[in-house]
Amino acid sequence: MRLEPIKNPTLVRKLVPPAIALISTVVIASFLAMVAGANPFSVIGLILKGSFGSQFAILETLNRATPLIFTGLAVAVAFRAKFWNIGAEAQLYAGALMTVLLGTGVFPWPSFAILPLIIVASILAGAVVLLVPALLKIRFGVDEVVTTLLFNFIFLLFISMLLEGVLKDPMGMGWPKSARIIPEAKLPRIVDGLRLHWGFGLAVFSAICIWIIQNRRTLGYEMRAVGLNRDAAAFAGIPVNVVIVKTALLSGGLAALAGFSEVAGLKGSLTLDLSPGFGYTGIIVAMLALLNPLGVIVAALFVAGIFVGADSMSRAADVPTYLADIMLATALLLMVLAIMLTRFRVVRD
Amino acid sequence: MSKDAVEALSLNAITKRFGELTANDAVSLAVNVGEVVALLGENGAGKTTLMNILFGQYTADSGTVRVFGDTLPSGNSRAALDAGVGMVHQHFTLADNLTVQENITLGVHSLLKPSLGRAAAKTRIAALSKKFHLAVSPDARVGTLSVGERQRVEILKALYRDVRILILDEPTAVLTPQETDDLFATLRLAIAEGLSIIFISHKLHEVMAIADRVVVLRHGKMAGGVNTKDTDKNALAEMMMGTEATPPEVSPAKPDAPLLAFRNVTTADVGSVPGLKSVSLALKGGQIVGLAGVSGNGQAAMADVVGGLLNPNEGQVILGSETVQKWTPRIAVQSGIARIPEDRHKTGTIADFDLVENAILERYKSPAFSNGGWLNWRKSRAFADGIIDKYDVRCPGSETPIRLLSGGNMQKLILGRVLEADPQIILANQPVRGLDIGAVNYVHSQLLAARARGAAVLLISEDLDEVMALSDVIHVIADGRLSPEFRRGEMTPAQLGLWMAGQGFETDIAYAS
Amino acid sequence: MEIIDILFTASFWAAAIRISSPLIFATLGELICERAGVLNLGIEGIMVAGAFAGWMAVYSGTGLWAGVCVAMLVGMLFGLLHSTLTVPFGLSQHVVGLGVTLLATSSTYYAYRLALPEVTSPPKIEAFQPYEIPILSDIPLLGPALFSQTPLTYLAFILVAVVGVVLYRTPLGLAVRAAGENPATVVAQGLSVTAIRMGSVMVGSGLMAVGGAFLTMSAFDSFFFEMVNGRGWICIALVVFGTWRPGKALLGAVLFAAFDALQIRVQQTSLGTHIPYQIFLMMPFILSIFALILMSRRAEVPAALMVPFNKGER
Prior knowledge:
- The complex is a heterotrimer of chains A (349), B (513) and C (314).
- With 349 residues, chain A is mainly alpha-helical.
- Chain A has a domain at 68-291.
- Chain A has helices at 11-35, 43-52, 55-80, 88-103, 111-140, 144-164, 199-216, 218-228, 230-236, 240-267, 278-288, 293-317, 322-343, and strands at 2-5, 344-347.
- In chain A, helix 3 crosses helix 12 (293-317) and helix 4 (88-103) packs parallel to helix 6.
- Chain B is α/β, with parallel strands linked by helices and 513 residues long.
- Chain B folds into three domains: 7-241, P-loop containing nucleotide triphosphate hydrolases (Rossmann fold, 3-Layer(aba) Sandwich); 253-336 and 425-438 and 453-513, 3-Layer(aba) Sandwich (Rossmann fold), CATH 3.40.50.300; 345-422, no CATH class.
- Chain B is 32% helix and 24% strand.
- Chain B contains 17 helices and 23 strands.
- In chain B, the strands form five sheets. In chain B, strands 13, 16, 19, 20, 21, 22 and 23 form a seven-stranded mixed beta sheet that branches.
- Chain B is globular and about 70 Å long.
- Chain C has a single domain, classed as ABC transporter involved in vitamin B12 uptake, BtuC (Orthogonal Bundle).
- Helices cover 70% and strands 0% of the residues of chain C.
- In chain C, helix 3 (43-59) packs parallel to helix 5 and helix 7 (151-169) packs across helix 8.
- Chain C starts with a helix and ends in an 18-residue tail after the last helix.
- The mean pLDDT of chain C is 91.
- Chains in contact: A-B, A-C, B-C.
- At the A-C interface, helix 6, helix 11 and helix 13 of A face helix 5, helix 11 and helix 14 of C.
């Protein structure tokens, strides 16, 4: 067999493969739930009900989507320039660490300046963490996939060391947990009484900014050019290495905001289980969004919905929650295949 | 041909379409044992497609291939190989990091065989090398070999398999005239052994020299077939080109002052590819300077230095009267250098960018297209639309991804992109490679028009005929060294060939400063 | 001084060899994939799946070697998935690899929960026991270190030689290497790049799974979550460190494991008590990054690694 590009794909060609991918994901998940002893036809309903079926469920989904929008954007920005940042997890913790360092009230900031300062500092922390793999790539040609992956482990151990050492909360009853941040460092709620904080607003705002950068700014043009064809970009005079560094800084900063928003918006302190793999899930979000920054918002809601919905489905139907991860992995693999099939035709030769 | 000639191969009414393009339209061809048939045609005439079908790399839409009377299953290289068909591709299919012997013996044995039988293979390769005058060391890594040596490996690959029919796709494109003679000597030895040869080329004198019979393809169709002894070059040329446009007339040059000069420029070698070795050169206004040579002899370094991608290790680049200090692609473009890159797919354009994005690729930072980091898409689109109009780029619109355009139209966009700024210096690196005859003439006429308005043009090409036809002054580059200049019509191909092989000229003649 | 003493104990080297064994399996697996031109980031998840599958098979009553085969088969299935998507369909090897890791990990955990819904601590199996090779195990220092290991460790070392011989001395190995260097060469000689690459990824993935199974069937006797813990990613670094050669990869794995064994022992010395244990745990990862930097300039990457091949592309 051979793949042949389709010059002018029809609407059917553009829509049918992704639709089949989604339906197949649902069918596979239902089948697996049946293996676990649940009614296969109720599973999707339960997931939908658990994620979007009530005000509480929707707020929970929005909260869960917030860090995913940030990490999804981080990955989307990096992958667009073909810089394979698999280390959003480490950058997320860098942002969370900075939030806790500055937000525990050790420094006497005027209260209105605290949040902006923390935000900027968090972005810088994440940017610096990703700068190292970027420089290793440029200077030594070391593949950033492996270095960013390894950094995740290193950084998490580093955080663990701090939480059991200098950052350990004396009031924490022995748990490896930081002290709580002061109220002025907390992100306020969007609507009083509803459990949804401004981190979500910041995430949507970031997505719009990234869209503008990618489509209206020269930097975005450079990043796309470098991602699509590095040789041609270099020939045209685009400073490829500079663009890669800028991309890394932007990507790392975005991932760090996920850590900031989780600490400042929800948790209030830093623990080792702050992120249940938001950094890795960001890759799925970005791919499902076809690396489009605005699409990331939708994809993050979809992914968050599956997580939140699967949690409640798991309680109701006694199916292990890992079904959510299986669904996402399946959706990811089938979706990249489907997207390819919207552009190429499989022909016999 | 005698009456009792045995048919080795026949292609019957082969048709192959790629989308809307018909690459082969009911083409038939037969080759007898011990015969050399030349397949002649312009770029894009369908020669390579036809041979890829014969060799099982493509499946024909209709038609059959018969080898020694048996029909070959379509789309199966293995079957073609087993039937005794071997092919030397234009772009060699060799793995650089493997040795010569490994490249030759790959796929010869069953994959389940427990041993490579290295000693026996080595003996056999040595015997074949000797018999066919194909000197090459079996243990050398292919990556360290010269182009001529690699071609010998390709031919040995086929001979090692005892092929009966050998297809050579543009085998002389990368050879010096002397190397070409050696190749022909080898081919004559093979014919004496009873092999049949299909020789693909667009060079008339070579076809006349080696072939018994010529089959001409034009636009995918058979344009005729004749015995070489019954025809001559002119008749073949007419068959090949039809009544299409003739090459543009070249008026005498009126050279001005040098606009760009190299003074003893030296650059680093890249692997086995030489850099420039103390090269001095002057590009004058109103003049086309042609750079001839076998590929991989420093042309890339020359193009990169002119284009701003490479800084000399030693020596100076002089722009007008100023010695260049900092030299980058962006500065080169700003200094009025138009750069037509060697490979329009890999470096000239970004396939998934649309025509607008490709049009501003070199100058998106200039005030014409962006302001304070904000891109002005309206002006950019107007610029692209202007190029599409003026340079006759055939496309559905400026927002089409450029990968959907033909090579000729892609090249027209690149031409427009660089010529619209009224450049004083033009670097044209293989500007017509792979284009059809219409597009070739268009590109050439644009280069001549630029010359007429006083621009300096550096034309780098592996096609000697192109260099000879267009250039006012020609240099040969060999192993990074630049030959003295000579003017159009002053040199014989034999002497040129010597120079291309790096013999017969001294580099330290300072002549162009 | 204590550190120097540790280096001369047989138990230290025995531990190093034991720790290196799963890395050797998985590194060989990744090496085969990459030699054929495919980066397999599914390695981490495939090791998890292999660890569970082998252990679960034995727990359900099969023999130990049958368990190894089950692990291998499961690995090959994930390899089939990976290579179907990356080879004929030419999808991004990064994305597919990570997707396979996620799928393999999550479906393993799902299966674990389904198979053992009630347990709080996982059951143990009768794992591979050390087998002392007669005579050789009596050699001082070397004997207890090298020749008193479990059969799976011996298999790992034998496999290094086997893979080396196959890659460099057989037509099959030549075809695999050629597919990773220049697929067009392979096609021109009448072979199928798709078949060679898919086969290599499947065999490689099978070895990765056996590497995972070593953890549950030889190093330990039970299955825990997070038990692979980044070993797969380390193996990817080891392939680079070993410049894509089985012998050098073995050397890298043993060096690496020796370092790991050393840090475990140093943790228990007076020096170790003054340093947070996380520093020691970081060492393997930091070491991997240094190994990558060290080898980056001289590495001979297979030229067609991560380059999909679409026959007849024009």
